[in-house]
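Format notes (please read before filing issues)

Several people have asked whether sequences and structure tokens are stored in separate files. They are not. Every record keeps both together, in the order shown below: the sequence lines, then the token lines. Line labels are part of the format and must not be stripped during preprocessing.
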Amino acid sequence: EQVVETWKIKLKELLKQPDSPIEFAPSGPTIIMVSGVNGAGKTTSIAKLAHMFHAQGKKVILGAGDTFRAAAVEQLSIWADRIGVSIVTGEPKSQPAAVAYRTVERAIAENFDVAIVDTAGRLQTQKNLMAELTKIRDAISKQLPTAPHEGLLVIDATTGQNGISQANKFAEAAGCTGIVLAKLDGTAKGGVVVAIRQQVGLPVKYVGVGEKHEDLALFVPDQFVDALFDDIAKSA
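Then the structure lines:
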């Protein structure tokens, strides 16, 4: 029991993070770029983030940067309409960087508080597609040199050690500043984030705990570690 308690203390210290997960721009819009592998839960996570900021009274705009999947643009547009936020879309198969550029351009012109730029899902091993993330990031910086202010990587809570590779490659290409741990759904999954924090340094900022747009919670390290060990004890 003493050993387990020592592990808990060490992990809680390791996963500790600032109370405010998002570093908002001191003036003008805060630009958040969101990336992740296919099927990680990126679109739903963006909807949850948009709903959270909108509920805080912020003026929010989305950039539908997944231009190669019509279904992705449609899904994000439905979420935007449902939540009550604006969205910028592009022609099918148009350059994602152009959508990102126009999103930031409109965010500046119309005094939006937050712009969330979506990117198409991709595997971290796809070099050309990873290079595209850097282009999107550069397009955003052309409008605002200090942007993107946050780069969120969406990771599926059921992901194993492959998550470390994802974090490494996406952090390099997209300048990720933190993780949204999707599909946690109230169970103690997501242990890979411990290794990611150790090896890559990325903190978990939010966790997705359900399918609805309000099902996004602040990551609380103490609760997460306790739940992780409870789950281990049950399966032992």
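For reference, the curators noted about this record: The helical segments are 2-15, 42-55, 70-83, 96-109, 127-143, 162-174, 192-199, 221-235. The CA atoms of residues 32 and 150 lie 5 Å apart.
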